[in-house]
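Changelog note: in this version the structure field was regenerated for every chain. One regenerated record is shown below for reference.
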Amino acid sequence: MAQFLYRLGALAARRRLLFLGASLAVLAGALVLAFGSAGSFSPGHSIPGSPGQLALEKVERHFPDGSGVGGTVLFVAPNGAQMKDEAVARQMRAVVQRIGAEGVIADVGDPLEEVSADGRIAVASLSFDLPAGGEIDPAVQDAVRATGASFNQQYGDQGGRVLFGGDAFEEELSPFGVPEGIGIGVALLVMLITFGSVLAAGVPMLTAVLGVGGTVAGVLLAAARFDVSQNALTLAIMLGLAVGIDYALLIVSRHRAQLTRGHTVAESIALATATAGGAVVFAGLTVIIALAGLTLAGVPMLTSMGLAAAGAVAMAVLLALTMLPAVLSLAGERLRPKPSSRAARRELDTRSRGLAARWVDVVMRRPRTVVAAVVLGLAVAAVPAAQLALALNDNGSAPRASEPRQVYDLVAAAFGPGVNGPLVVLVEGDDPGATAETVRDTVASMPGVAQAGGPVVADDGQAALVPIVPTTGPRDSATNTLVADLRAALVPIGARTGDDVAVTGLTVVSLDVVDKLNGALVPFTVVVVGLSLLLLLIAFRSWAIPLKATAGFLLSVGVAFGAMVAVFQWGWLAGPLGVPLEGPVPSFAPIIVMAVLFGLAMDYEVFLVSTMREHYARHGDARDAIRAGSRNAGRVVVAAAVIMIVVFASFLFSHDPNVMPIALALTVGVAVDAFLVRLTLVPAVLTLLGDRAWRLPRWLDRVVPRVDIEGHELSGEKPAAGATEPQPQPKPEPELV
């Protein structure tokens, strides 16, 4: 691999204008094509073939008039008045009439049929003339909202108002805003401090931003052909920025170090692409495999998020190996640190030890104490993860100031939380009405049921519905228990009558997704852990490195999950962070966090340990290899981790309830993994193991494939393998950063 990457880097350096022109042309063409034929994102959370989804599709076939995109209009009476007062009722009916006159409205109910006990709140359902799952244009939403302007003008000063909510009026948050822009600015500052050069700091940012542009184009084009979750783009941008900057940072850092030591520009670019680029390929591949593995869960929403994020990482790797060498060639000698600069002195003075290297020296003096303290501390911090509760977000978890959230809260307060998550029982058969009456009478007295209505018989006479209002909201665990109880109670009814009886509704479909994701978490963990062991075994030809790296990854994941529970379920720092609702975290968040954090943890492991192994392969001194790795790669790992933390933290302040838990967990997880695991626990464990850390049993050495990620084959060196001690080379190559 090193030889191939060397030739690729050399070619890109020689043909820099061709590589740059081709890259920019492809990216520009993709963006033009994407924005010209961009698809819409899917807001739905469902699993094709799940019991709730199959029953819901049958409901839509038997009751086509009620299967469109639905919403809610809510009226609040002015102070001292009620909805049934003649003047208020007249104004309310005028609003309803204007809503019905909108061409996009298929049906609107009578709000006077649903009035709260105190008479101050009235609601009516409305449906749009669109197929289920269709997307409503924001201009159409604004036109419908405008129908309540006269009511708001007349009664606004007295506390009266009209609000619109439900699925039809969900607010789609921008995937990129001011907080994310500030995060990029801070990341640029970190690179400026790291390199001491504006040009060197700007190069990684340039390639990362261009990579994100290509990713955005790809996701928009995919949305035109496939169901893509509305959160997929945000996740792809977040991860694409982070890894795009980090991968370019590693190669640029190696390139500048080689220029300082006297390499020519062309030779340094080729060598940096072969060595640091090899680490980028390996690290990026682990992230891509982990994210692509999300497809195994069988949830379309999760599949689109995983593949979009994997595409972002693949784009970052591709540009780091093709476009970045061309940009470095174009920059030429301007990237070579001046002999009198701090960067040059740091590279040439072998006694120079940065903060990371000095910290590792402290760790190596008391390795047993460090291992015990870190493992115990992280284990305690991971304890809250045992209480992790999952659900799917709805308008109840939207920002408090949003109109759909206000409607959700007012409906829950006036009519009960279960009204926001109604259930329905579908009965299919020759005489569905009679069976539906039996269902209604059976479930009406069940615990957790506030109301059972109907039955409503379809026009074709082949189906009937029994609407059910739970006593609890759709994100409450008690509602999940109720659905399970209903399914159990309906089995004997269906067996006795011969009719098909099923519980469904959007709430049930969402609960099926949660159950599916809960069931996929443990198998996915096993796959990720196994993948980690296998990849690191191949990369470092050591039995100890994979075990140590995987154990550290699991500790980092545990702390990340614990942080999610503490903030989003227990409410710690919820106010300052702007958490809109305390309660279960989105059901897809843990598996996304595990996939992304796995890849990033392997990034840091490869960046740090490959440098250690490179030194050990040349000199055969285990302790000195740890010091050399911390000196040469520690600064890069610190800078890369800080950039990751800043980028992820900026998305935490996006106030998107689906993104915030992921951003928080990744922020905490990266901080823990980089500083407490890779720069603290790893050196301590390697110090205790000594030479044993780099050995492989002979029988295993014969079957494990050889992958050169340190670039030994470029100089003809023989890397350490198995239990054979490597011999120092007569003329070792200079150490590279």
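Spot check on this record: DSSP finds 26 helices and eleven strands in the chain. The chain has four domains: 1-43+174-349, 63-169, 356-385+520-697, 423-504.
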